[in-house]
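User: Second chain of the day. Same drill as before.
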Amino acid sequence: MDLREAIYTRRAVRNFSSKAVDDATIRQLIDAAIQAPSAMNEQPYCFIVVRAQGLLDRVSAAVKTFTLKTTAAGLLPPHLEETLHDSKFQIFYHAPVLILISSMNQGPWAAIDCALAAENLMLAARGAGLGTCWIGFAQGWLATPEGKSAFGLPQSYLPVAPIIVGYPQVASAPVPRKEPTIQYVNG
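Assistant: Same format as last time:
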């Protein structure tokens, strides 16, 4: 698959087959991620690869509780609040792998550097026939001391991009895109 096709067909995937993603493929995704630009070539990335479903189940429960307790009333749309109350809902969608991209420092561009690496990883995954989804629900809890501890991150690290990875059960449908707002400034 060429890069343009990967860009235009990458979708958030939330239904995965049980097929494992092998270590060599994970390494290829991480190698693609580290090709991303970083401010002043700091390359602050750290990649935590989690396959342990029991750990992901426990983290999911902690994230749901944390999100419900820390989100101001009325800010969560009703369907999301209902989903977070559902004991059967696992925020990582039982994906075979979670790759948590974190920064080893909390400099001014650390989160941006990690986000750039995350996009490379997601596009490389699409090119390899894998699906991904950035799990935004996890970000708040992962930044807590408990969240960092769950994945063995030093307290000084900044967790940025929790990305699930696996083989999609079904192809994701195209999502319509809005027409971009473009302004040209000349001189």
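The chain has a mean pLDDT of 95.

User: Great, on to the next one.
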